[in-house]
Automatic annotation (TrEMBL):
Residues 266-300 have a biased composition (Basic residues). It is an enzyme of class 5 (isomerase). InterPro entries: Topo_IA, Topo_IA_cen_sub1, Topo_IA_core_domain, Zn_ribbon_TOP3B. It comes from Notechis scutatus. Residues 266-302 are annotated as: Disordered. One of its GO terms (molecular function) is DNA binding. The lineage of its organism: Eukaryota, Metazoa, Chordata, Craniata, Vertebrata. It comes from the Eukaryota. This is DNA topoisomerase. Keywords: DNA-binding, Isomerase, Topoisomerase.
Length: 311
């Protein structure tokens, strides 16, 4: 209790004044003050059990709260989702807690697992009009690659061949921010969309299409990834009743009227240029595309995945 009272600080200040006046030795005062704090620290550590008992009268233990959601990659038991802010996942068997993105909903993502650590993926969503992305609870808290930071989901993961990573679902540079990449939301159909992995730009396209895929090919004009789209036969915009088309969402004449940016804060429209032809995206008219995309391959293990990435 004394640590939060002004008496400790006042006593230390008196000793400092004596040092300034030459009436006290600096090293003796320092040693005496540190000894006081050390003794108090050991006292609190020894009394932590009593503090826990006091808290349990009003609060439930973390392991006793929440509901089972996804499996831990270490013990393969279910982790509990603690919905109260800050929302998080807790594995009672491993006694580890994993932070999650806030201000959205969290649910299990098709029982799919991260190829690096075997944790089940979860899906964060800000709502039907917002954006969503999957994430690995372990990678979100422990970035697996040097160019990643804590708090990044699968839409920012640089894994070379994971089907959920930026390398496989990234389409091109964001039309608004400098560092963001527009990433396909693979479960947004039939109201398909792609969203920036840095800012809140969301682009809606190809509504009612059966299937939308990111191609390994890139656009010659803007370097964005081409899109392979299977349209609904009854609502196909293609001539002659065709249902399949591949092209660039920014440059293709067929796609230009099927792409809509629903973002109130946008300063300029998505469509640029005339005659049904778009100029390049972003600043300087040149988009950015992640190079070297290969067909998805499941890595043999974590070390193999890391080796494949750095080589």
């Amino acid at each position: 209790v004394e640590l939060v009272l002004p008496t400790i600080r006042s006593a230390v200040e008196k000793q400092l004044n004596l040092i300034a006046q030459g009436k006290a030795n600096f090293h003796q005062v320092l040693e005496h003050t540190l000894d006081i704090f050390k003794r108090k620290f050991h006292y609190f550590v020894d009394s932590i059990a009593g503090m826990d008992e006091l808290m349990e009268v009003s609060f439930s233990p973390l392991a006793a709260t929440g509901k089972p959601l996804s499996r831990c990659g270490k013990c393969h038991r279910f982790m509990k989702y603690i919905q109260a802010k800050p929302s998080r996942l807790h594995c009672s068997h491993c006694d580890e807690t994993y932070s999650l993105p806030q201000n959205g909903t969290i649910k299990l993502y098709k029982e799919l697992r991260c190829p690096l650590d075997d944790f089940e993926l979860v899906l964060w969503s800000s709502g039907s009009r917002g954006k969503s992305y999957p994430l690995c609870p372990y990678c979100y808290n422990n970035p697996p690659f040097r160019d990643m930071k804590k708090g990044m989901g699968c839409n920012e993961c640089t894994h070379p061949n994971c089907q959920h990573s930026l390398n496989q679902l990234g389409i091109g540079q964001c039309v608004e921010c400098e560092s963001g990449v527009l990433v396909l939301d693979p479960i947004s159909g039939p109201k398909w969309k792609m969203a920036c992995n840095k800012c809140n730009v969301v682009v809606h396209f190809f509504e009612n299409a059966h299937k939308v895929r990111v191609s390994a090919e890139t656009c010659d004009a803007c370097d964005a990834a081409l899109m392979d789209v299977d349209f609904n036969k009854a609502k196909s915009p293609l001539p002659g009743g065709e249902t399949q088309h591949a092209g660039c969402v920014f440059c293709d004449v067929v796609f230009q009227d099927l792409v809509e940016l629903k973002h109130a804060a946008m300063k300029h429209p998505m469509h640029r240029g005339g005659q049904g032809k778009r100029q390049g995206r972003g600043r300087g008219g040149k988009g950015r595309r992640l190079g070297g995309r290969q067909p998805p391959k499941k890595p043999k293990d974590k070390m193999a995945a890391l080796a494949a990435y750095f080589v």
